[in-house]
Amino acid sequence: MIRTTTYPTDDGQHVAVIWRIDTNCQTMVLSSNRGELPAVIYWKDRLPADEDLLALHDSTLRDINGGMLDQQSPLSVAPQRLDSFPGQPGLIVHNRDGKALMPRLRFVQAQLNDANDHLVITYNDPQLQMNFTCTITAAFSSNVIALHNELTTDAPVLVSWLAAPVLPAPSDSSHTLEFSGRWCGEFQINPVPWQPGARVRECLLGRTSHEHFPGLVVPTQGCNNAAGKAYGFHYGWSGGHKMITEVLPDGRRQVQFGQARDTDQLATTHVATAPLYVTYSNSGLNGIARAFQTYVRDEVIAPSGLKLPRPVHYNCWEAVYFNHDVAELQAIATEAAALGAERFVLDDGWFKGRNDDTTSLGDWEVDTAKYPDGLMPLISHVQSCGMGFGLWFEPEMVNQDSDLYRDHPDWLLGPTDQIKGRNQWVLDLANQTVRDYLYQRIAALLDAYPVEYIKWDHNRVLPFHNAEHTQGVYQLFDRLREAYPQVEIESCSSGGGRIDFGILARTQRVWLSDSNDALERTWMQNNAALFLPSEITGSHVGPRHCHTSGRHLPMALRAWVAASRHMGFEMDPKELDEQERSILVDAVTWYKENRDWLHRGTVQRLDLDDPAQIGEIQVAVDQQRFVAFITQMTASQQSLPQPVRLTGLAPDKRYCITLRNAAQAATLSRGPVALKDRSLTLSGALLMNQGINLPVAFPETLWVVEGHKDTNS
Ligand code: GLA
Q1: pLDDT digits (tens, 9 = 90+) for 294-333
Q2: Whether residue 539 has its Cβ less than 6 Å from ligand 1
Q3: What is the distance between the alpha carbons of residues 498 and 492, in angstroms, rounded to a whole number?
Q4: Which secondary structure element, helix H or strand E, spans residue 4, and what is its range?
Q5: Tell me, what CATH number does 85's domain have?
Q6: What is the structure's pLDDT at 247?
Q7: Residues with active-site annotation
Q8: Whose CA is nearest to atom 7 of ligand 1?
Q9: Is pLDDT of 665 > 90?
Q10: Which residue from 514, 539, 548 has its CB within 8 A of the most atoms of ligand 1, so it is best to mutate?
Q11: Is 389 in the pocket of ligand 1 (CB under 6 A)?
Q12: pLDDT tens-digit series, residues 666-685
């Protein structure tokens, strides 16, 4: 809900416009005085409906001290250089001759839609012939606000920085939580102290990247997963991006996100940022997790269509790599279906001459050496096993050793003497002809075969970041989605190199990481849950001997970690012994029985007192049931585990809780832990305040605690 109020100012000559945005758990207030760009003057808990917004505005006015300018320069949605803003400006623009332009933007109009949830505020500078708009969309129930800025000019200009609407950060926060990562280690969280001056994180890799996920959390003092106040930010763009966090000399703090921009770019008359998604939580980091998970589910993914229930995947990559043999794959498909798989994804290696990663990208035709009768013999077999069929592509790439490159050496992004990545170059998707070629090749395969799913890979960084390429990628996705709405797409980029809300508007699953190591995946899934709902987060049971970490982990851990997200497996099923098979089938059965409510619920992170454990709880939307996963990552320092406090439950409801895998208690467990042999019925309040005792656990094992609302409560 967005409301506009206009007040005359003291001198009676001018007006102050104040916009109040309310979502379920937050209020954001922006004010624009005397026609200046609006500034966020309040962003915290919901305010009473009758709050006097002019008084609120007046309460935010600050003093001026010696050595300061005579007036405080506004921290507006685009802090201006002309206002002597004492930090990084929100807009840096030059004319074609390189002369800095300092617009004096003045209010023109504000347009609020009938639903009162979408506001476009327009400013202009008539002298420089520049228009500036700030667009704000509020999603009430999920508690997320989406904002973007746009600049249009009559004469072409050079824009070296345009931030999405700039927001203040709270002073009662000692640090931010940034996200970094690497191949097989996505979504690492780094606490970064607030310090005087600007900190810049810039991703020039041309994709969202493993290294610089465009997200930020700003917890305030004392915030943990379950309680406290925190702010969440995510920039929804799949190309190069930049984040600035800054403490100004007067103590104010700002957060900026925007596209990475070339200084040698072409002059343009229009620049727009991607949406910046933000949320405020007064219920700890989990409030952010709930907001973003719900928003992705309801607003980002839903319009493009996500079919529930999410089928169990089988992916053949780590089973066969490039060694495709139809009979072998058919045998694997039979086994996979017997284990419970519902969709078979044929990974890399199926197209013309692709026997390793040095050739063939770009030649999207079935390899007749491996598939003399095309893909149909395999697909028919897969379907006869009751599974749907998915196919791997990496459309944006080309190998030097390919017909495509031989025919079109000019389709590359960048020069031919650039450093290759995984032996490949990137195609220039800003080029319509390239996009048409890729569309036609993919469409031909979708027309020829009953393909219900595409795993869309992207295995190297761009030679330089290039927004036009990313726009081209979006166009190709959109065209395919429009023509083949029933075909789902997974965003993979050497694992999680392209995960963001921009790509998620066009895809239905992300491959979080190439790591199938269940321990690594535990912390990655836990951290990524701040942004991603479970049903779109792919998670597979890999080979017993993990190919990316060298570890041997027990099947129970591998199976349950996969079952806790969108489940799949990708080992050669022949390697499974009887015990592993039965543990896996049990977890698959559980996944199928529970996915209905799991995939409409939320994943919340537990604050565990033992640093050797990581835990999460998944709670149904009606809070009637839950499952908690408590993973013993390493051996604990103390001899006994500490009680596990749950979160996200209804305090006054009584839950009957059971330890689903009590039989797996370590042989060393000798004490009378009640959950080892019976269920307990306890209130949500008790489960959240004091918690429950679990038996001792060996490292690399996990507890599955299930809870149902007691029918008598
Ligand atoms: C990437 C993906 C893997 C697999 C291979 C195939 O590494 O992340 O899952 O598809 O490419 O080459």
Answers
A1: 999 999 997 777 899 999 999 999 999 999 999 999 999 9
A2: no
A3: 7
A4: strand 2-8
A5: 2.70.98.60
A6: 98
A7: 457, 514
A8: 494
A9: no
A10: 514
A11: no
A12: 888 999 999 999 999 999 99
Among 285, 301, 317, identify where a domain stops. 301
Q: With a 6 A CB cut-off, is 335 part of the ligand 1 pocket?
A: no
> Using one digit for the tens of pLDDT, what is the confidence trace for 589-648?
999 999 999 999 999 999 999 999 999 999 999 999 999 999 999 999 999 999 999 999
Distance CA 608, CA 225 (A): 10
Look at ligand 1, atom 11, and give the residue with the nearest C-alpha.
Answer: 494
Cβ of 348 below 6 Å from ligand 1 = yes
Domain membership flag for residue 539: no
Confidence category of residue 465, pLDDT binned at 50, 70, 90:
confident
In a domain, 234, yes or no: yes
CA of 493, closest atom in ligand 1: 8
* Of 268, 301, 334, the domain-final residue: 301
- Position 578 scores a pLDDT of 97
User: From the CA of 202, how far away is ligand 1's center (Å)?
Assistant: 26
pLDDT tens digits along 166-181? 999 999 999 999 999 9
Cα angle 311, 314, 318 (rounded to 5 degrees) comes to 150
Structural domains in the chain (count) = 2
Q: Is residue 475 part of a domain?
A: no
CA 344 to chain CA centroid, nearest Å:
25
Domain with residue 626: its CATH number is 2.60.40.1180
- At 59 the three-state DSSP class reads helix
Q: Label residues 107-116 b or e (16+ Cβ within 10 Å = b).
A: beebebeeee
492 within ligand 1 shell (Cβ under 6 A): yes
At how many degrees (to 10) do helices 578-598 and 555-563 cross?
20
Calculate mean pLDDT across residues 21-30.
Answer: 97
Name the residue among 699, 639, 702 with its Cα closest to residue 671: 639
Provide the H-helix boundaries in 395-543: 403-407, 432-448, 467-483, 501-504, 518-528
Structural domain of 645 = 606-709
Q: What is the pLDDT of residue 466?
A: 86
Q: Give the atom of ligand 1 at the shortest distance from the alpha carbon of 492.
A: 8
| Assigned domain for 48 exists | yes
User: Are 361 and 424 a contacting pair, CB within 8 Å?
Assistant: yes
Query: What's the 354 CA to ligand 1 centre distance in angstroms?
Result: 13
Residue with CA closest to ligand 1 atom 1: 494
Tell me what the mean pLDDT of segment 501-521 comes to: 98
Q: Establish whether residue 490 lines the binding site of ligand 1, counting it when its CB lies within 6 angstroms of any ligand atom.
A: no
With bands split at pLDDT 50, 70 and 90, how would you rate the model's confidence at 14?
low
- Return the residue whose CA atom lies nearest to atom 5 of ligand 1: 348
